[in-house]
């Protein structure tokens, strides 16, 4: 099955991009959830962020457990939305490198397509400086593999969504947890009881620095953002409440007016009889 195009809702785009921008040193990845319509357009409406166990450059492997978790999420979403949702693709970031898929990416993508021909890969290239304007540039590409060595680009459209959906909000707040889990696992891998004191202090210091970075770059801004949203939502509720009261008042007035009018109409008919 060849796809016509891919539509990604802007709240999904926001989550993927925030995830991609969360770390400059390593690639991040996740799975995309959505559905294909009858015109072969893929609609991506949610996302599952993945924890990377193997932190080598350009090694983005998804474990069977992670695939299973994502499938369960897709099933939950199907029930909530009453539409068939499934895992339809994967995304990963390319910090400081071009947006184009590497040989490994093309091969990985080809393997996924063996299981599901409509599967897509999306890459976010971040922390790249534009040579002319010297500004930070973000690029996104959506692709499918033709064989083990070549790929084709699939047109990607970011569709505006009126608000951030609950599944996307849930995914957004998992970002700090996932980053901290990765840092914790990396620390556990290099630490053991037999190490000398200096090495242990060094590892602990590197770990502390990484955790502080997650707090500073992700947790604090995210909390501020959510607090602002909460404040705005409370103000919206108050405004709507006032609007509701005013409308109810107006409705009552109109009903009264209507009642007295039909009364005088009745009186008139009685008089004529
Ligand atoms: Zn890659």
UniProtKB/TrEMBL annotation:
One of the GO biological process terms: proteolysis
Cellular component annotations (GO), alphabetically ordered: BRCA1-A complex; BRISC complex
InterPro entries documented for this protein: BRCC36_C, JAMM/MPN+_dom, JAMM_MPN+_peptidase_M67A, MPN, MPN_BRCC36
Keywords tagged on the record: Coiled coil, Hydrolase, Metal-binding, Metalloprotease, Protease, Ubl conjugation pathway, Zinc
Recorded coiled-coil stretches: 223-257
Residue ranges occupied by any MPN domain in the UniProt entry: 6-149
GO MF annotation terms: cysteine-type deubiquitinase activity; metal ion binding; metallopeptidase activity
Family membership: Belongs to the peptidase M67A family. BRCC36 subfamily.
PANTHER family: EUKARYOTIC TRANSLATION INITIATION FACTOR 3 -RELATED
Protein's UniProt name: Lys-63-specific deubiquitinase BRCC36-like
Species: Biomphalaria glabrata (Bloodfluke planorb)
């Amino acid at each position: 099955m060849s796809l016509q195009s891919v539509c990604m809702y802007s709240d999904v785009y926001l989550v993927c991009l925030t995830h991609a921008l969360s770390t400059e040193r390593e690639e991040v990845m996740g799975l995309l959830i959505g559905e294909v319509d009858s015109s072969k357009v893929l609609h991506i409406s949610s996302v599952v962020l993945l924890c990377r166990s193997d932190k080598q450059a350009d090694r983005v492997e998804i474990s069977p457990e992670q695939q299973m978790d994502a499938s369960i999420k897709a099933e939950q979403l199907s029930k909530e939305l009453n539409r068939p949702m499934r895992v339809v693709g994967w995304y990963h970031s390319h910090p400081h490198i071009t947006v184009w898929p590497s040989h490994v990416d093309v091969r990985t993508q080809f393997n996924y397509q063996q299981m599901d021909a409509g599967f897509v890969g999306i890459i976010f290239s971040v922390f790249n400086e534009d040579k002319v304007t010297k500004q930070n540039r973000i690029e996104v590409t959506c692709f499918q593999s033709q064989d083990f060595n070549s790929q084709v680009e699939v047109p990607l459209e970011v569709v505006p969504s009126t608000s951030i959906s609950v599944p996307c909000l849930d995914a957004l707040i998992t970002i700090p947890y996932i980053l901290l889990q990765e840092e914790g696992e990396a620390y556990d891998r290099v630490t053991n009881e037999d190490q000398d004191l200096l090495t242990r202090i060094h590892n602990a210091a590197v770990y502390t620095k990484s955790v502080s970075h997650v707090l500073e770059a992700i947790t604090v801004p995210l909390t501020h953002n959510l607090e602002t949203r909460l404040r705005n939502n409370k103000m919206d509720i108050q405004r709507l409440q006032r609007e509701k009261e005013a409308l109810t008042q107006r409705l009552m007035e109109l009903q009264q007016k209507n009642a007295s009018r039909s009364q005088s109409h009745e009186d008139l008919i009685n008089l004529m009889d």
